[in-house]
Amino acid sequence: MVKLHFLGANRQVTGSRYVLEADGKQVMIDCGMFQERQFQHRNWDCCPIPASEIDAMLLTHVHIDHSGLIPKFVRDGFRGPIHCTAPSVAMTEVMLRDAAKIQEEDAAYKKKRHQREGRRGPNPEIPLYTDDDVTAVLPLLRNCSYQQPVPVTDAIRATFHDAGHILGSAMLEVDVTEGGKSTKIIFSGDIGQWNKPIIRDPSLLPRGDYIIMESTYGDKMHAAGGDIGAQLERVVQETLGAGGNVVIPTFATERAQELMYYFGRLAHAGRIPQAPVFLDSPMAVDITGIFLRFVDYFDDEMSKLILAKEPPLHFPGLTMVRTADESKRINHLRQGCVIMASSGMCNAGRIKHHLKNNIGRPECTILFVGHQSEGTLGRQILDGQREVRIHGQLYHVRAKIAQISGFSAHADRGGLLKWLTNFKQPPRKLFLTHGEESVALALADHVQKNMSWTVSVPRYEETVELT
Q1: For a Cys-Cys bond, which of 3, 201, 389, 450 suits 21, CB 3.0-4.6 Å?
Q2: Measured in Å, how far apart are the chain's first and last C-alpha atoms?
Q3: What pTM was estimated for this model as a whole?
Q4: Which structural domains are found in the chain, ordered by start?
């Protein structure tokens, strides 16, 4: 009996995690951290299926909402191989060590604050996992190439295809053989947009008996705000002209490099002032170095630019910030500047400190360039909340709030439907995950009515039999 367990990103965006069960073996697909505030307690809970009972793992990509619980899962007893692409292997250590550092720093900060306030907090006073836990993950990582089948168990074989989401991201074509019957299960991972810089377009697959697809933007099209470079130029010109700073919550993987790509093109063309641009994220700095190691994964346009005299990931005024002291010195600058800092949803990391120093200044702009999940600090700011809590203290939001949606690494509704309509025949069932409940349900209704497919929106810890 083939079973699929839904253990995360069900009727909400983060925490992607599934377990595929076949022929007495269990394989986990992704092991992501829950980032919405109302679901963060699940990070501390034991996995509904004990870690020691999982035989192998398939990792679609390294974003923390897909990989962030792996160190805890290994500490809890998982010892199987973790299959992913070569860029993902390279980036996993950087991503998880940074996540562990954030966990440790945030736990120490909260403990100090709670002691000062004379109260004790729950689990978050201790880190979810540590750097030592990350070290234990690394020997388990296994390189996989696109379009090369990987034997995972005797009954399960997986093929990785480029998802066009971030460098090395994959959608999975999983073939299960049991009782003489073969079943093809497609896991979309996170599907990227077409015609984006740096990386290739998402793969289109011809068939699947069952499809598990993300639905992050399943109810909307990305706003057609014009050329991304022009939008970025306008925000920077207006904010720096007013004497303010542009603060950009930045995902360290892909989004930081894409921002650098556009800033580089603008700077080389003289379209933005010669002002400091800070990439304040040690992880983003390291990830940028990894990008330059895997040029074979770039699209044709980016490959040509790499050979040009004006490389897109380097430009005058750019400063890569590593240490905490360097980060703190940014706050003493009197001239206007651009600050890119992680994390992208403002739920952790150095961005919180930059928000504290700029969110109350009317001349500044908080610029969002990525999805903000419900319940995150970034979503509260983007939704227009006039007062937000940062590090336990309330701050009035007086800065301008702006958004450029064209940066999204996720396909919008049109992109998701483009991916679905490429399948030559309907699957037995389509499962929609990795989207807020109302969004996933809206997309399910659309597909059922317009494509006549059978669609399900699973709930957390739901198990289905794939027969």
Answers
A1: 3
A2: 7
A3: 0.85
A4: 3-220+410-465 (3.60.15.10), 228-407 (3.40.50.10890)
